[in-house]
Specification:
Elements (H helix, E strand, L loop, with lengths): L2 H9 L6 E4 L6 E4 L4 E5 L4 E5 L2 H12 L4 E3 L5 E5 L3 H20 L28
Antiparallel strand pairs: 1-2, 2-3, 3-4, 4-6, 5-6
C-alpha cells in the first residue's frame, strides 16, 4: 500500500470529510462541507488546503520539514509522502485545516489560487523508505 493510499484510507473514515474529484482535474480529493481540503495527485504527492492564518502560524515549522513544499501566495501546501512519519504529518495537518476552515475566521485577503499541482517539484529524499 502506498503512503497516499494509507492516508486516504484513514481520512475517508473521518466524519467531516467526503470524497470527491479534485477540482484541478487530477487525482482524488476530500472535502469538508465548505471547501476541498486535500488533493491526492499521485501515490506520494498531496496538496493540502489551509487558510492564510494557519500557514502564517505554521510557517517556521513548515520550513523545517523536508516533506513540505510551499508556493508563495498559495493557500495550499504540498506534502511528499515517503514514510509513515509523513503520513502522520499529513493527518495532523488535515486536522488543522479542518479546524481552520470550520472556524470561518473571516475573509481571506489573498486571492484564491488553485492547488499547487504542476507548480511544485518534489525531489525524492535520500534514504527515503519504499513503502
Amino acid at each position: 500500500m502506498t503512503p497516499a493510499q494509507k492516508a486516504m484510507d484513514q481520512l475517508v473514515k473521518w466524519p467531516d470529510l467526503s470524497p470527491c474529484p479534485a477540482a484541478c482535474g487530477t487525482g482524488r480529493a476530500l472535502r469538508s462541507t465548505r471547501d476541498e481540503i486535500v488533493h491526492f495527485h499521485s501515490d506520494r504527492d498531496v496538496d493540502l488546503h489551509l487558510t492564510s492564518r494557519a500557514i502564517q502560524r505554521l510557517h517556521y515549522d513548515f520550513a523545517e520539514s523536508s516533506a513540505i513544499r510551499m508556493v508563495p501566495g498559495s493557500r495550499w501546501v504540498t506534502i511528499h509522502l515517503d514514510c509513515d512519519g509523513d503520513v502522520d504529518l499529513l493527518l495532523s495537518l488535515v486536522s488543522v485545516a479542518l479546524k481552520a476552515h470550520q472556524s470561518g475566521a473571516g475573509p481571506e485577503t489573498a486571492p484564491m489560487i488553485g492547488c499547487n499541482y504542476h507548480r511544485v517539484t518534489v525531489l525524492q529524499r535520500d534514504g527515503a523508505e519504499d513503502a
